[in-house]
Write a structure and sequence with these properties.
The strands form two sheets. Strands 1-3-2 form a three-stranded antiparallel β-sheet. Strands 4-5 form a two-stranded antiparallel sheet. It is mainly alpha-helical. It folds into two domains: about 140 residues, no CATH class; about 100 residues, no CATH class. The chain is elongated, with a radius of gyration of 40 Å. It has 14 helices and five strands. It comes from Ligilactobacillus ubinensis. This is Replisome organizer.
């Protein structure tokens, strides 16, 4: 198997590819790097090596970047021939070639040719690969292998189940602000994948509607559905405190009586200073002494 692989910019720069989660994009590159000359790779092994999850592979399959050939997650990269052009005299047949042609008869497979420099056939699999190929003969393929529909049906069922759950949540969102359903559904799928529950989102919508009612939020200030889901607003802190009452467009302020010292016309009473007090005391003492 070659030590270098290439990727078509037309594929990896497409909107369909870039809209996938980054984990699915990364898995696609790892699968391409480890695929054999027919574009077939044992995805389970690669996922274990790079820490990917099965949902990442299912997304690639749903987007038709790969085809899962059996329950062991042997996977065919659909755009392999565009990504890599392998010389026929250097090509090594995949040990899963028969399986691929059984499930995808129209798959583009390069037939190996003798080497131009030596005239000897090349691409001959190693002994252990021959053994594996015999083990995966027609009889075994007929018993153990499943069709693409059988393998990918659980993924379609899961997407359908998610969409049903999302529709129930979407129906709860404030009427008149249900814009951007597609973007909202993508954000919902990402949130569910990251561990958010339907109950958390449902509670968030209920609390948001309660806040709108209490705060009397105008409809044009209510977040669009796509924005609310994309920003995961179910995690926000909601304000259930009623707003301040207003009269004639102005806030009602309770007036309090000011103390006398705070009034503008307040005049301080004149108080005798310390010297006057001392003189007064001296006069009183003198009068007492005279009487004695």
């Amino acid at each position: 198997m070659a030590q270098r692989r290439m990727f078509s910019n037309r594929i990896t720069n497409s909107a369909k590819f870039l809209k996938m989660p980054l984990s699915s994009q990364a898995l696609y590159f790892h699968l391409g790097l480890h695929a054999d000359d027919d574009g077939i790779v044992e995805a389970f092994t690669i996922m274990r090596q790079v820490g990917a999850v099965e949902d990442d592979l299912r997304i690639l399959a749903a987007k038709e970047f790969v085809v899962i050939l059996n329950t062991d997650l042997v996977t065919f990269i659909t755009d392999w021939s565009e990504n890599n052009r392998i010389r026929a005299d250097r090509k090594v047949d995949s040990i899963y070639k028969n399986m691929l042609l059984k499930i995808l008869p129209e798959a583009e497979i390069i037939k190996p040719k003798p080497r131009a420099d030596t005239g000897k056939p090349t691409g001959r699999p190693l002994d252990n690969q021959w053994t594996a190929q015999v083990r995966l003969g027609k009889d075994r393929l007929g018993k153990d292998s499943k069709t693409i529909d059988q393998v990918q049906k659980p993924n379609r069922d899961r997407v359908s189940h998610l969409e049903n759950d999302f529709d129930k949540l979407w129906s709860l969102y404030p009427t008149g602000r249900k814009q951007g359903r597609k973007k909202a559904f993508a954000a919902y799928q990402r949130a569910i994948k990251n561990g958010t529950t339907n109950k958390q989102i449902q509670d968030g919508i209920v609390n948001y509607k309660k806040e709108i009612k209490i705060q009397k939020t105008p409809i044009n200030y209510i977040k669009q559905g796509s924005t609310w889901f994309f920003n995961e607003c179910w995690s926000d802190e909601f304000n259930f405190t009623p707003p301040t009452q207003k009269r004639n467009g102005r806030e009602v302020v309770q007036k309090e009586t000011l103390p006398d010292w705070a009034k503008e016309d307040h005049v301080e009473e004149e108080k005798p200073n310390d010297e006057d007090k001392s003189n007064r005391i001296a006069e009183l003492m003198e009068q007492i002494n005279k009487k004695e």
